């Protein structure tokens, strides 16, 4: 069964790189959203195995988006991984304390991204045919 991932990030280039990475390295189905509110709407209407959520976004940041996802019966069980450019341990701890599954620091190599997601969510590493 192919994993389905929702990528929520306000930067077009970042969304595109993550989507291409997940699809080419892991073979996962990847949908994208350019804002927290768009991401919530997509997450509520489709099934996802995980969400990659950017921390710094205008209007509704990652932590606020995550809280709204957690407040909805339709999306509260989807594991969410925060993606941030901030590598400070204290900032990552604050995100973990919110209840996210994990934190990935960007930028990262496509293969490292897939490995990190698998490690955080305890998934088997995908094997490409």
Automatic annotation (TrEMBL):
Membrane-spanning segments: none
Annotated InterPro entries: Bact_response_regulator, CheY-like_superfamily, Sig_transdc_resp-reg_receiver
Name recorded for this polypeptide: Response regulator
Organism: Anabaena subtropica FACHB-260
Domain Response regulatory: 4-121
Pfam families according to UniProt: Response_reg
Residues modified as 4-aspartylphosphate: 54
Keywords in alphabetical order: Phosphoprotein
PROSITE patterns the record matches: RESPONSE_REGULATORY (PS50110)
